[in-house]
Amino acid sequence: MIGITAIFAFLGIMCGLIAGLWWGFSQSWLMGFMTSVGGAVAGGIVGCIAGFIYDDIPHRIDMFSKKHRVLGGISFGLFCLLWLVLIAAFAYAGFMFIRHKRHHV
Q1: CA quadruple 22, 23, 28, 34: dihedral positive or negative?
Q2: DSSP characters for the chain?
Q3: Which of 1, 38, 2 is nearest to 18 (CA)?
Q4: What is each CA distance from 38 to 51, 64, 75, 90, 102, in whole angstroms?
Q5: 41 within 8 A of 14, measured Cβ to Cβ
Q6: Is 79 within 8 Å of 61 (Cβ atoms)?
Q7: Which residues contact 65 (CB under 8 A, 6 or more apart)?
Q8: Does the pLDDT value for residue 105 go beyond 60?
């Protein structure tokens, strides 16, 4: 069965591959190939880390919330919000980096 970590890693690889192709092939085919490989590796790493965080932290918060019910619920809500903000920040930073590189070449 495919876990959430594998799904996020796959999405990261695909986003990195597309972003590398988008920026690199406007320069040359060799640059496009190198940036797509680098983007796929970086996207896979970020996606895998996001999947591990999404798998592990809620389990730990659930164990904590058995002792402290209200504090556990608040910390789980804050974790979900922070996790979504972090994923959005990575996507925005990647997009802005590619946009910056396209305008300064």
Answers
A1: negative
A2: ---HHHHHHHHHHHHHHHHHHHHHTTT-HHHHHHHHHHHHHHHHHHHHHHHHHHHHHHHHHHHHHTT-HHHHHHHHHHHHHHHHHHHHHHHHHHHHHHHHHHHT-
A3: 38
A4: 20, 39, 35, 16, 17
A5: no
A6: yes
A7: 71, 72, 73, 75, 76
A8: no
The answer to whether the beta carbons of residues 24 and 31 sit under 8 Å apart is yes
pTM greater than 0.70 (yes/no): no
CA distance 105 to 10: 30
Task: Give the C-alpha separation, 12 to 46, whole Å.
Answer: 7
For residue 104, pLDDT over 70 is answered with: no
Question: Tokens in use for 11?
Answer: 């999405």
Evaluate the CA torsion angle 22, 101, 6, 51 in order and state its sign: negative
- pLDDT, one tens digit per residue, over 5-61 is 888 888 888 888 887 787 777 777 787 788 888 888 888 888 888 888 778 777 777
